[in-house]
Amino acid sequence: MRHGLGQAIRLVWAAAVALVLAGCSSSKQPERTSLEFWCYMGGGASDPTARFWNAVAARFEKANPNVKVKVTADIPHEYYMSMLGTRFIGRNAPDVMLMDDVEVGDLAREAPGPARGTFP
């Protein structure tokens, strides 16, 4: 479990940093960027998982003052993929999301139109 969590943290950080770097311009002061992070674990703001991801987001924001991370960690697992699929269909997916490798494959197979086949 610990190895998977560490790997998830590295993935979240790498994705967030890549998004931030892609949006930065060296010719002017960077604008404030917002990242939306979804996690299916957690039962609200007081849940240990939600507290963990909010702490990770706070550390990231401290290291990157022009970035605001909105953590959504209160989606029950049984609804998570359905809600995520709806957001993808609406072209409004979260910037960073926690998913198992099996779920990535499921989402790739079920993705509509142009999104199909764009996942590794």
**What average pLDDT do the residues reach?**
75
Poorly predicted runs of 5 or more residues: none
Number of strands: 3
Radius of gyration: 15 Å
H/E element sequence: HEHEHEH
- Structural class by SSE content: mainly alpha
Spatial strand sequence of the major β-sheet = 2-1-3
Helix content: 40-55%
In DSSP terms (H or I, runs of 4 or more residues), the helix count works out at 4
Strand content: 5-15%
**Largest beta sheet, briefly?**
3 strands, parallel
Distance between the first and last residues' Cα: 24 Å
Q: How many domains in all?
A: 1
The outline comes out as globular
Offer a quick outline of the entry.
By secondary structure, this protein is mostly helical. It is built from four helices and three strands, in the order H-E-H-E-H-E-H.
What can you see in these coordinates?
The structure is a single chain. The chain has helices at residues 2-23, 48-63, 77-89, 101-110, and strands at 33-38, 67-72, 96-97. Strands 2-1-3 form a three-stranded parallel beta sheet. It is 51% helix and 12% strand. The protein is mostly helical and 120 residues long. The protein has one domain (2-115). It is built from four helices and three strands, in the order αβαβαβα.
Features:
mainly alpha; 120 residues; 4 helices
Ordered list of secondary-structure elements with their pairings:
Elements: H1 2-23, E1 33-38, H2 48-63, E2 67-72, H3 77-89, E3 96-97, H4 101-110
Parallel strand pairs: 1-2, 1-3
